## 1
Amino acid sequence: MSTLKVIRRRIASVKSTQKITRAMQMVAAAKLHRAQMNIEKARPYTLKLRDTIASLVIRTDPNRHPLLAVREPEKTAIMIVTGDRGLCGSFNSNIIRKAEAAMQGGEELILVGKKGVEYFGKRGYNVAQKHSGIFRYLNFGNATAIGEMLNRYYCEQELDRVLLIYNEFKSAVQQYVVLEQLLPLKPAEIGEANPVEYIYEPSAAAVLDAILPLNLNMQIWRVLLESNAAEQGARMTAMENATDAAQEMIETLTLHYNKARQATITREIMDIVGGSIGME
Amino acid sequence: MSAPKFRLEVVTPEGVVFSKDVVSFKAPGSEGQFGVLANHAPFMTSLEIGPIELFDGSESYYLATTGGFTEVLPHKTIILAETAETKGEIDIERARTSLERAQKRLEAKSPDLDVERAQLSLHRALNRLRVVGVK
């Protein structure tokens, strides 16, 4: 009897866990949808910005702007983008592993996401900036805040190079860990230049000066959006797997339960039969 | 004859805010405020903090921007703004508090004050309040 009770209790507990994972899966799916829409919404701006920079770069000397200046990388910063929350498979741990492999010592860390802040904060790394809890209400202001700070440090030569590690959103079930260079900005690939001759006010160079910091903010914004979508995708997949595993466990346990129940009934019948034979 | 119109799009990183045929618009350029009518020559300038006023022939719309730039092409104009908030989106209380905070910071004149930042914040707050029509 006691084993029956134990099994019944285990089934109930697995079922309630499954309810939670299934709910989380559905929440992640809804958030993923929203995150993907945000990526879509940012696209017109990104495309236009790139066109404009391309047409400005050919009209000015692109090397004169400080954000494009390439220096000997003595002081490097790495911006590490993790999520704020766990239960999303290897989303955060992949980033952390990649970041530790990329470090050569002496880099400053710019941490985005609570998980990265928790991990690197405790281990004596040189943490310059922490941005945790921004993904819940992600807005362009978050990107601007990071961008303006980097812009200032880079132009004052406090930093010579800024690298970026984040999860790129490929599809709902695929994320790639990407390591790329954020600063110096790579001069835009010159595609077919816009043939229109504009009147620039005050001058093409001044307009370029105003646009490049915007471009930096936009890069950061794109990365935050990508990482956010990737996180939701990863969580959705992880929770789907957890729900399936729970289902399998429930089925096995139910089988055990039925076997045990049958065994008990058989034993009881045998007892009764034995008893009635004894009475005769 | 009604005034000629042209397509105007206001695009921010968070989406397309405005897309409509307009008669004219005014925007805060880095060399001062400017206005554009249909058939303007190709023109490009960066924007400062300030109000954008759009007129579609019967109604005026106001947006508060914190900067960006504008590209005018013969039949289409694109305003790429870092932010562009309509009256309804502006949080008056928040703008008021940040206005007061910036004013206090500028008056206190402490040695470690980032004057530029405080002034920018002051401008942004004033601009928002102006667009809402409170100030």
Note: Strands of chain A lie at 76-81, 108-112, 127-131, 161-171, 174-183, 199-201.
## 2
Amino acid sequence: MMRVLIAVLAFASASTYAAPPAGAAACSGCHAASATVASPVPRLVGREAADIVKAMDEFRAGKRPATVMDRIAKGFTDDETRAIAAWYAGQR
Amino acid sequence: MSVSRRRFLKSAAAAATGLFAPAVIAQAAPRVVIIGGGFAGTSCARALRKADQRLAVTLVEPNATFTACPLSNAVIAGLRELTAQQFTYERVVADGITLLRANATAIDAQARSVTLSDGTRLVYDRLVLAPGIDIRWDALPGYGESAAERMPHAWKAGEQTLLLRRQLEAMADGGLVVIAAPANPFRCPTGPYERASLIAHYLKTRKPRSKLIVLDAKDGFSKQRLFENAWAELYPGLLEWVPLSGGGKVISVDASTNTLVTDFGRHQAAVANVIPPQKAGSVGDIAGVADRSGWCPIDPATFESKLRAGIHVIGDAAIAGAMPKSAFAANSQAKACAEVVAELVNGRMPSAPKLINTCYSLVAPDYGISVAGVYRPAGGQLAEVPGAGGVSPLDAPRATRVLEAQYAEAWFRTITGEAFG
């Protein structure tokens, strides 16, 4: 029985997947996940979480020059923004 | 959900009795089949592999080359080559995705199986349909497939795009170009107006005595004020938009004379671009997930069909509430759907998605405008988050328009990189 249990646990852990928080995957439509794409839009992967949160706060407040990010930032709460920022900071 | 979960538990039990043999675990890998290799299907396939390397992901797509619609209006206007729109699947396959070059001919939602045109039968744990659009050849009298050889729709990029471009190039200066725009919903709601803008740019720079009329089956459209302001500034006297209430709805066409007929009169065009009514790609019918509207109703939190369990629909074919039928929305839905499917096949409850759309339009090569929105499931559909989104400012300086034109092209490189690069 113990052996069966261990096998089940091993199977379960092999399939463990930390899903990105809501909204995080949508960002890469403009902020390229791949470093090989040439774009003036900054990558978010590996960026300091605090930098992303600050930028989003400033976009929301209209304190940072923007074309679309002022409009998009308003669609995310502080909690959502922090979760997305932390997730991108942990990506490589 | 419950079926998947049962299967998962059964697989786990099988793995346990088989005593930790990796081969057994590999055999038990959940199978996800995706039909359609456009922005939605390809993005979803890659996101699924990223989410869970164990998943057996199969992408069914008959074409060896994908031709992208976004920026294809620039090809029509001679500003870009069609080859810049074309992508292949080598990198997709390199991600460990099985690519099958075939059409789906039958789908059995009960047996969870797909039959392909080459006779192959695929069994799935979850099926994702991303069939894009089909033209409704029965919807506009006179406009069948042979009429489209004379009056191109150019609404699926490829040979039709080049046909419309060649017709414009062959037209004498002083000719009349007519675009017929359909009623909602249809692929790329701002596409007809970007196309009108870039054709007007071509006429202004190459054939300035010509005229362009847009006959519209609607009284309004996305980014309308921005377009109309730009048209007045850039193309005065050259481009005329005729709304539904002004007699703009095309009720029939005659391809033999290149004539578009409305309730108010007949327009004989030198070049006629008929953007006809559309519906979900035919796979939607084969799977039984399209309703009487021709489009596919979905659960806004999971993208699962409201008509068939275990089948998810993303991209242009889906009825996605407030989200437009755009490549950006397709890619955004694809990644959210991949997360949902990865959770479901692993026996977990998915969390509610949050999505973004941004659509750029080029009014001229160096003049871009945009509309953006943030979406989440609410009231049984994908609804806009209030207070967010909207269009580019009406009073933005020209430098902003230049910047947005650059961002439009950067977006295209990014999204095609994510799907195909």
Note: Chain B has twelve helices and 25 strands.
